[in-house]
User: Which sequence fits this backbone?
């Protein structure tokens, strides 16, 4: 299955929109299979290291995964004063689980992914991302995340919705019905985040998810992650919180954890929205400095 | 020269690195010529509107140009308390000139581009970007930017180096020799910025330019712009300043100008560097909030 050759160039191409594509030159295809839910492929690329795609869409790469995984994890986990229980919906690659376990208060992380094959393939081919999945604090459940959340009550301090794009198996993860179930599944000071696509290329989605969150959670905020392999440079993440506002964290809240992207200043940076994003959602005035 | 067709798809592809490519579907080629300095092409794309390329590299698009042009302009112009004279090196599309003229104190903008054909083509095909080039406060000079700067003394409050990538005609714009000439061309409270490539894909460049700036200008800072059509999601911009620190601007400094990206909070956001960028250059602690 190797494509390594000096003369024959193999390229993986994703049409990020009908009219925009990203291409990564491929050294070798490591895995390719049709699971019960989607088409999975793992490739070794020259520029971004090992790449996971589902249904032909880039999910994560070894080179830039830290940006998305750190932003999806450390922002909500710092917004909660002492997160002990964390639920990850989707995210079978394990990147968010790895980041969540860096917080010393975390006692349990439940990962619910509908597709066991994603988890198995990532354990085999993406060890730097999936490395924490066998940690004793982690429980991996192969089942429907929506059903799992609907049955949970007052159970999780933080819920992280690491979904694929809102087509195919992930559609139900973008509904008000599901977010209301998330509210009930959260504990008293609970915090939820969900990936929300590109504000430049998919502004309606960002607006819709924010408005839905604002109607369900006492505090709703939008922040950003800059993911090179996702379209539009800036990726939106929506946060819902029962009590704590991520814009107003005390300095002592920030924990001394090892990161490559996140810092307390990057936390605040992420909520300082470019004007065109602010106009889709709301003004946000994070407090930096002393 | 039209490629519009339902069956025949035309795509422009740029190899952003030898192993990474971006492709934009093209409706129509509007201009294509070999100038004395480079190959120029202007295309109408489906996703990003009109696109300018030089030597096959994306320079700007109508859809996302505001991000780069606003960040290159409003950060240095707000760092200076009352900019009257602005020099733009390169930037023949006129986007930075348009933004600079939004500041009421600005009396004169000199644009020095070595390639008259870029300016002419942008005037014709990119009117929303080049619209300010005929403003009476603007002087367009077709000459070598390096020579122009070397002959200037104490002449400009702000200098903006809007270069192409550091290959071909722009190589000399990335040297310590040139930056020393910039220092002399600046007035007493002068500020300079230069585009500095992708910290993820070209970290050595970011480190080298920052260190060179730090050896020449009393204050050296690095900030970011998120440009979807440039590789790596985050683009670095290096700032040199004689007196004023962009991290410590008084709230009253910010002018009421119309923007789509920049706000006072976005200003501070841009200096809150992700840890991997901070480690290339330096810790920066912008002050936000009240």
Assistant:
């Amino acid at each position: 299955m190797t494509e390594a050759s000096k003369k024959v160039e193999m390229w993986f191409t994703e049409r990020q929109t009908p009219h925009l594509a990203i291409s990564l030159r491929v050294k070798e295809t490591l895995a390719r299979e049709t699971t019960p839910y989607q088409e999975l492929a793992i490739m070794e690329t020259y520029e971004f290291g090992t790449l996971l795609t589902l249904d032909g869409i880039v999910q994560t790469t070894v080179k830039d995964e830290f940006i998305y995984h750190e932003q999806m994890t450390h922002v909500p986990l710092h917004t909660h004063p002492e997160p002990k229980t964390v639920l990850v919906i989707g995210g079978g690659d394990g990147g968010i689980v790895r980041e969540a376990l860096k917080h010393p208060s975390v006692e349990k992380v439940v990962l619910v992914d509908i597709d066991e094959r994603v988890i198995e393939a990532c354990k085999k081919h993406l060890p730097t991302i999936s490395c924490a999945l066998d940690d004793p604090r982690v429980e991996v459940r192969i089942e429907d995340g929506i059903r799992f959340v609907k049955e949970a009550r007052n159970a999780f301090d933080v819920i992280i919705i690491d979904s694929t794009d809102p087509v195919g198996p992930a559609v139900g993860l973008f509904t008000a019905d599901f977010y209301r179930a998330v509210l009930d599944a959260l504990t008293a000071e609970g915090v939820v985040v969900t990936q929300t696509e590109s504000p430049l290329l998919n502004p309606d989605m960002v607006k819709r998810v924010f408005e839905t969150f604002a109607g369900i959670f006492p505090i709703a905020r939008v922040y950003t992650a800059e993911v090179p392999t996702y379209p539009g440079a800036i990726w939106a993440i929506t946060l819902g919180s029962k009590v704590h506002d991520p814009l107003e964290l005390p300095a002592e809240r920030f924990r001394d954890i090892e990161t490559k992207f996140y810092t307390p200043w990057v936390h605040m940076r992420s909520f300082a929205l470019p004007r065109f994003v602010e106009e889709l959602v709301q003004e946000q005035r994070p407090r930096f400095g002393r």
About this structure: The two ends of chain A are 55 Å apart (CA to CA). DSSP finds nine helices and twelve strands in chain A. Chain A touches chain B through 52 residues (CB under 8 Å). Residues 65-278 of chain A form a domain with the Rossmann fold fold (CATH 3.40.50.150).
